[in-house]
Fold:
Amino acid sequence: MSAPLDRGRYALVLALDALLLGGHLHWMPTPYAAWLGFLLLLAAWLSRHQVRASGALVRLPLLFLTFGLLVYAAGSPIGREGGSALLGGLIFLKLFETATARDARITAAAALFFSMIGFLFGQGLLLTVYFCMVAIAAFVLLHVVSVGEGDPAAAWRDGLRRGLRVGARVTVAALPLTIAVFILFPRLSSPLWGAPWDATQGKTGISDRMRPGQLSALWNDDSPAFRVTFAGAVPPPASRYWRGPVLWSFDGGEWSRSDLYRGSRVADLRYQPDSVVEYEVLMEPSERNWWFPLDFALQIPEGARLASDGQVTTFRPIIGPRKATFRSAWRYQLDIRPVMGQRWAAMRLPEAGNPRSRQLAAEWRSAHGGDADAIINAALQLFHRDFAYTLDPPPLSSDTVDDFLFNTKAGYCEYFASSFAFLMRAAGIPARIVTGYQGGSYNASGGYWIVRNSDAHAWTEVWLEGRGWVRVDPTAAVAPERINRGSLSAALPEAATWYSEGWGAEWRNRFDLISRYWRQAVIEFDAVRQRNLLQQVGLEDLGWRALGGALVVFGGIGLLLGVWLSLRGMVPAQRDALLVAYRRFGDRLARCGVARAEAEGPIAYGERAAQSLPECAPAILELTRRFAEQRYGESANDPDRSHRQRLARELRAFRARR
Amino acid sequence: MWSRWRDALLRFAETRLPALTRYRQAEPLPIRLHARRVYILPTRFGLAFAVLLLAMLIGALNFNNNPALLLTLLVIATTMIGFHHCVGQLNRIELRSVGADPVHAGQPLRLKLSFHAGAGADRPHLVLDQDRHRTQLSLAAEADGEAEIVLPTQRRGRMPVGRLRLWTPYPFGITWAWSVLHPDVQVLVYPRPDAEAPALPLGDPREQGQRLRFPGDDWHGLREHRTGDPPKHVAWKPSARQERLLVKEFADPQSHAVTLDWQALQLEREARISRLTRWVIEARDRQLTFRLRLPGIELGPGSGAGFAAACLRELALLP
Structure:
């Protein structure tokens, strides 16, 4: 029953899919996105050369290839990323069996759904605006395939023009209603079912494992990890360590967290009262279970847990933006009295591997005896003397520590922290690795500090007799500017300046401010905020019924406003530019006192106007004559429109002189 | 099954609930559509779309994903405003006239309707249908437009145009708005011509020249004057010679003058009509002069399309 799709309309389906793909590039595995792009081009090529590819011989291999690439690129077709990628693949495969208006409609609906899926991977302002554009495009497609369905192929251009007008107009007119309902729609205070599928397997942010080379993905990730607003004084840059997971176990290649050695509360903490700061953290969704308080947290928000090694965890992964207030002291002493079991855990090394490093540590041990400070100094001296800081280090062989210490001698914080901790343990000093963030940049317009994923860092702590756990940042021995200026400027001292300090930074700060407003006004809007907002306008705790009433009233107003806005403009534009120009010409004459009578023809009118306005009589007569000729004469049917266009321009340019 | 139930229900509603179904009854032209007689429902795609939107809404609410909720609400709001555009398409449309050239029963009838679209947007996609027969038209705002729908015909006589439905999927194909147009107009359907009729009963060729039609154009002869003959027909010279008043007589030879006589046919009623129809068509096509004798009426003799149309009309309207 549905009409077959002509090539023009099919091109619109292709265009919609291309738009859709553009909105998903930011999370889709690159090979997979490239494959979908290829499918798009293939479909376009087939359509252009009018090759019918409806057979299973074409579609089945494409399906298998898509699925195979999906498994290769995303790991599995289940879970958030895999499932979304699968859905995207199916939408693009649908291109090869899109033959009727019905198929095009299905594509438009699927595009809307897939746009929503995009918000599982990011909720920024730009992304939202982009997907609203995709929604408009989907409505345009719906219009073009529904209205004028079955028209000859040539008519799709008219349909597109009309569709753009109608689709954009109706969607824009829908904004008041959307906003009213958005504010008033009842929110769930707790989800009906669990977190998005594999929220804990996301890969941005800092994980509880560390294998040198893994963090590097974060250097390029300039997105904010969290934002901090200090209530009072701000700690100095060298003390701005944001403490994340503490890693105890080393298996020769990878450091990991181990719950076995962690007590449930901090055993022994002394701090200087003048170093206590209070601050509010606005955390981006990390899909992880931990906060990053300023080292060292004294007071943590409700629902969080402070482990004995100073890591603050939550019970549920942080899947939405979260806000919490912390109190920290940045000058402190931890566990001067040793905690049972910790010393042993912080000394453990694999049985074998990295023999040269062990030998080096043993040499230090025999040279300095029990003098831990001397051993630490020896290690830092070594780093300072021979090692380079780079964000793009050469790969390491299986004995990572040996290879790094004696061969490559270049790396970034993870490499230094990992090998330093190894050396310390081998030399008999308890050591552990702390991951988190270091630094942060100030957003002056917003008055807050912003810590980006590119600020991710790893450092070590060693336990010293009488001083407890002491932070040693081996990276500082190699590239002290990393601690003061951030990782990018340390790696690229010249190139990075405009970006992190000059006008680039200013723009970045402005954009971040907008993002923060967006975050606070839209992304974090929940049941609590909704209630607060309604209280401000006097709808205090009236409950669901009042909310429903307000929804109906304001929604109704929004709907009427939208209908009025969109229908008001739908009075058809005069498509005949010549007539419009002539009307304006008449309006100008009317302003000089010569209004055209209802039943007066152009020529009679022109003559009358010429008599009343002798000064510009020749122009009036000439324009009138040409208008009559172009509109009613032989030339009216002339397909060449240039004369009419020129006349329209001249009519518009006409000014009557009195 | 479902359609039978639906028809039965509608018939019941029309007999018992005249107020509710008044817009389905025949009404005189012009028929002007207004919001109260334009109805709107989701299309099948629209129903699926609603399910999709519901899923999107629940998902967005569950994950408290506000941008997703914003997008979903935008789509819902756009759809809702689309409803009004959908109804606005039919609103203020006026059906001004309905007519058709007569055809024979069994032949498709091309019904011509002229519309006028009132203020508002252009109406680019209107569909006019009756049962399975449909046509598409587009009207510019504040302009006239024509539509032609081809309807089947079954029986001779006056055929009521019946209920037509005017609908549109505008703007997004998610909803369709429709209104019933039931103009109180009848169109004429000629009888079905007999497919196996014997040849036209022409006059006997031997009688040529004997069967005459008076008065005619050709000179025929002289005859005695009868009271009432016009004086200018008197043939004065022969009269003087013959010493009685003679009149010139003019006549047309009537060898081609066919009489199509109802009584002469020994057939069942409709078969007679059908055969006469066939002969009338044949006589018309061969440009013969003929007369048609029906019970109570005699037409002709005459010839030409106009006369044939009059004959066909009488045949069509025979009780």
About this structure: Confidence is low (pLDDT under 50) at residues 205-209 of chain B. Chain B has three domains: 29-189, 191-202+256-319, 213-253.
